[in-house]
Amino acid sequence: MEQTKIKDFVLAGVVSTLIGGSLTLAVIDKDYRYAFIDLAQVGVGGYIGLTIPAQSRLS
Questions:
Q1: pLDDT one-digit tens code per residue, 19-40
Q2: CA-angle at 11, arms to 7 and 29, nearest 5°
Q3: Considering the domain boundaries, does residue 59 fall inside one?
């Protein structure tokens, strides 16, 4: 059970870093703003997909 909590904490940290970095780069570089925002959306979608329990995905 403890391993799951650590895994979730690390995953949340990685996704937060991805989103923060992508949005920072989107603010800095206006030419590629939409690409960085899409990258942040993919990161959030992946995080949500991994946090949904496997049992609820089957139904």
A1: 888 888 888 888 888 888 888 8
A2: 165
A3: no
What does each C-alpha distance from 45 to 15, 22, 48, 50 come to in angstroms? 10, 14, 5, 9
Report if residue 56 sits inside a domain: no
Q: What is the mean pLDDT of residues 3-32?
A: 84
Closest CA to 12 of 41, 50, 42, 39: 50
d(CA 55, CA 59): 7
Query: Total domain count for the chain?
Result: 1
- Predicted TM-score (pTM) of the model is 0.66
* Measured distance CA(22)–CA(37) in Å, rounded: 7
- Contact between 7 and 47 under an 8 Å Cβ cutoff? The reply is no
